[in-house]
Specification:
3 domains, about 0% strand
Length: about 280
Amino acid sequence: MNADQLIDSYVADVARRLPRRQRADVAAELRSILLDELGDRTTPADARRVVDAFGRPAEAAARYRPPLVLLDPADSRLFLRWSLGGLAVIWALGAARVAGEPGVNALASWWLGVAIPSLWWPGMVFTGFAISAYTRRRWPDRARWQPRPIDTGHVNRWGHAAAWVFYAAGTVALVTLPWLRYDPVFHAQRGPWVLALLIVHLVLYAAVIAEGRWTSLTRRLDIGTNLLVGGVLIWAMAAGAIFAEPWVDDLVKAIVIVILLVTALDVVQKARRELRQQRRLTSS
């Protein structure tokens, strides 16, 4: 292969990575640039040095088209935090479950039954961030920064009351619906604790709705109750089955894990808000 053939092969490899409407123009421009760089040198080794200096065909093609960004660099740390935090929760719950299974290789069971299947979580998080990045690029006006509203603690009573009724109805349904067949051990030992904490949470939100605003006390009680509910749910799932049917039990536990992750983020945000509020009161 002589120098001209090597350059033509390189140009063709770059052009095929571009949209069809760009290929002819880019190929002509790129070939002209490479021949100018080559100058009077005519050996294949000289041509090889020229194309190597220009970069791999994929790198050269990227210069002629906007890069495809699936995850914005600004989101990388948050993506990593969500992914690793979720995997830590899933792996810990899986390890607790596997440790209680008699007669199995715990490490192999955890690796094949928990660690590898858990990779759905980073994939789901990545998909969410990719959709967010596309939305910001597609509709930049919607992604403009807006100042945070001042937190006065007041709540929309009607909206919160509607949410309270919904969650109360869901709690009643979990207890009374006849086709929800709970595991007998869960129903007798762990279920009452979960139900009691759910009722405490409902009572707390009823007090906030009646007051019409959050106070420092109710915020702290909310944070503490969320942490307690999360801990009890983790214990309830790790200690054994919740529902009698295995597929229902696995599905519900997967949903609860997602709820726990969202709740953990909510607790962190509420704790930060409370700390900011206390600093503001102290400084004033």
